[in-house]
Amino acid sequence: MRAMLVDDERLSLLLLKNILEQEVEEVQVVGMYSDPLQVLESAVQLQPDVVFLDIHMPELNGLKLGEQLQVAVPETEIVFVTAYDQYAVQAFELYAMDYLVKPIVSGRLKQAVQRLSRRQKKDLAANKRMTGHLMVSCFNHLRFLHSDRVNQPVKWRTSKAQELFAFLLHHRERVVERNIIFELLWPEFEAAKAAKQLYTTIYHIRQTLKNNGMGTITIHSGDLETGYRLHIGDASVDSEQWETYIKQLGPLDHQCTGNYELALKMYKGDYLGEYEYIWAEYERERLRRLWLHYATLLSEFYAKENMPQAALQINQRIQHFFPYDEESYFTAMKLYDSIGDRAGVEEQYWLLASRLERELDSNISEAIYAWYLKWKNDAPVWQT
């Protein structure tokens, strides 16, 4: 387990390093920093498993640095170190893995490391379920992910070959009739010419699969060559595995927020989102809405449990995938208002207004506008 240590007091750094190296065998210290301004760049380069981060530092508050680390290295866990108990709640609002109170006790430090180790094993098991020996990735763009070798981008002979493979994958294990393929890819061709193009394209797909070591994925002709069926063997499809995982999540409570967070992270982008395939639009929107449903549940839970920073992070991710979702901006405005961050409220309001006006030629809803006007006049508007 690779760890970075951050504390403006050199003596505290050395003490933490000594305890880790002498009493916690599974931790390797890969960097120690007294200047918090150096931490972000180093974290991106080193990709540590965990950062032990002091909260009270003069140049840059540790909680603020923790927020920046979560954006820069989202897979890295954070353990806050503080001399003051009152920072603990804020630490957990940032979804820190744990926090330690100075002076650090070796037994408590071991407990934090064990908790992190359990988290890593859990994430590894979930990723293994998502990956398998061969994973066909449909999130964002089409890729083949091998668990036993470096993954190289697949070079398709033509864009038609890529789309036909994606279309057969979309309908995997079912025969797709030739006439449907003709209409999809070569609507302007007569049947004989379209059939010739189809045979050539199928040949290119088979060669691409063979050349990239994907022998478990095969294309079979239907009876009397009425169509084609894609068989993926033991391979998995990431969007399908993700949907299975997210639908198995239990009721939302403090014990399973990590599972919900992991499920949201597993969604790497829209289904075949890099391609303008009209036939994929329904599935793309269905999975987007499924992700939004669980993201909204988690945001509402964090807000109800008085964890506004954690709820704000979820809404920022919602805005990434749904830049015109007014409700996420409205929720963020109320969350910023709850913590007295007026600049945050203003930013969310004008970000929404500018996006709607510039990109959709539309205006903010009357309900949000009315709330904003009352807020500007310092009215008690936290109630929804």
List keywords for this structure.
single chain, 384 residues, alpha/beta, five-stranded parallel beta sheet, three-stranded mixed beta sheet
Structure description:
The protein is of the alpha/beta class and 384 residues long. The chain contains 15 helices and eleven strands. It has helices spanning 10-23, 39-46, 62-72, 87-93, 106-131, 159-170, 178-185, 191-211, 238-247, 257-266, 281-304, 308-321, 326-338, 342-360, 366-376; strands at 2-6, 28-33, 50-54, 77-82, 98-101, 134-137, 143-146, 176-177, 218-221, 227-231, 236-237. The chain has a five-stranded parallel beta sheet with strand order 2-1-3-4-5, with helices on both faces. It has a three-stranded mixed beta sheet with strand order 7-6-11. The chain has a three-stranded antiparallel beta sheet with strand order 8-10-9. α4 (87-93) links the parallel β4 and β5. The longest helix is centred in the first third of the chain and has 26 residues, at 106-131.
Secondary-structure content class: alpha/beta
Describe the sheet with the most strands: 5 strands, parallel
Uncertain segments: none
Report the count of strand segments: 11
Distance N to C terminus = 45 Å
Task: Count helical runs.
Answer: 15
Gross morphology: globular
Average pLDDT taken over every residue: 85
Gyration radius over CA? 25 Å
Summarize the structure.
The protein has helices at 10-23, 39-46, 62-72, 87-93, 106-131, 159-170, 178-185, 191-211, 238-247, 257-266, 281-304, 308-321, 326-338, 342-360, 366-376; strands at 2-6, 28-33, 50-54, 77-82, 98-101, 134-137, 143-146, 176-177, 218-221, 227-231, 236-237. It has 384 residues and is of the alpha/beta class. A hairpin with a 5-residue loop joins strand 9 and strand 10.
